[in-house]
Write a structure and sequence with these properties.
Strand 3 (82-88) and strand 4 form a beta hairpin. Strands 7-6-3-4-5-11 form a 6-stranded mixed sheet, with helices on one face. It is an alpha+beta fold. It is built from 9 helices and 13 strands.
């Protein structure tokens, strides 16, 4: 099934591909109104996406960061927003997609043209963040992916598209080719606050929280504990806790809706074969069997 990286729609019900997870995110605001901080564990969600996409090496690490980054951005948005992070390699060769939904579910996707082994994040790679409202309205912002990778792109996005000064870091840890930890954190300077507190916070983050593998490992134990460490000696209030998990929104109804956009002649050709269509969801691998009889109802709308 063709990916819906640029599709808009109202939120459907989840399929059986939804699964329980130990992933979660915590959000807090300091009492002085200077900072908003988000700390998140995304290990189970990322692991499931990597397994489904059957990727390894740099592709697995980059997809992990794009998916975690997309979740992180969604956590800063209104509760009804869906966020899709789309990273395109240099010269538009290859795409990495992170798709995060309001219900806490998320999924990842890698697309590569024939012959391309790795989606590069080198010079010329760009990241697009798309925010979709339930009404279908879409806003997006695009930034280049710097040498610092997805974390640097996220900070560039918040600064240029959201006009919010932020320190954003996502990462993952692999052992023996297996993902053992994924997650990240975000520290944002809230509006109408001087930049002086941010300078102090940034210096501390660079000194104590720049080793992302160690930070991500620490988050696995307890995101709340990492939140307290980041905001050490700063009074704060936890404002939100969000459960995160892998989940796909594909369905037979959505497959038929996609087929309905085909020209009438193409639908008639598919029906003439008298063989069922087998369409696979690129995100989760679910196979949908569509008998010719189910296509007959599409002719009235084609």
């Amino acid at each position: 099934m063709a990916p819906d990286a640029v599709e808009t729609y109202t939120w459907p019900q989840m399929t059986d591909e939804t699964e329980s997870s130990g992933d979660r995110a915590v959000t807090a605001v300091t009492h002085d109104g200077a900072f908003r901080v988000i700390v998140m564990r995304t290990t189970d969600t990322v692991r499931r996406s990597i397994e489904t996409q059957e990727v390894e090496g740099d592709n697995a690490r980059n997809l992990a960061d794009v998916l975690s980054g997309s979740i992180l951005v969604r956590l800063t948005m209104a509760p009804t927003y869906r966020v899709q992070g789309i990273v395109r390699g240099p010269d538009q060769r290859g795409t990495l997609v992170g798709d995060s939904h309001p219900d806490g579910s998320a999924r990842g996707l890698i697309q590569r043209p024939k012959g391309l082994k790795e989606v590069s994040l080198g010079d010329g790679a760009v990241m697009v963040m798309m925010r979709t409202l339930p009404t279908g309205a879409v806003n997006q912002g695009m930034v280049e992916v710097p040498a610092s990778g997805i974390s640097g792109a996220l900070m560039g996005y918040f600064q240029t598209s959201e006009q919010i000064t932020s320190v954003a870091r996502v990462g993952c840890v692999f052992e023996g080719g297996e993902l053992v930890a994924a997650g990240g954190y975000l520290v944002q300077l809230l509006p109408e606050v001087s930049r002086a507190p941010l300078a102090v916070m940034t210096e501390r983050l660079d000194a104590d929280f720049s080793d992302i593998p160690s930070v991500v490992r620490g988050i696995q134990k307890d995101p709340d504990e990492m939140l307290s460490e980041i905001l050490w000696q700063m009074p704060f209030e936890k404002t939100q806790e969000t459960q995160l998990r892998f989940g796909c929104h594909c369905s037979s109804v959505r497959v038929l809706s996609s087929l309905a956009t085909l020209p009438r002649s193409d639908i008639e050709d598919l029906m003439s074969s008298e063989e069922s269509l087998h369409i696979t969801c690129d995100y989760c691998g679910q196979v949908y069997e569509i008998p010719p009889s189910a296509l007959a109802g599409l002719l009235s709308s084609s």
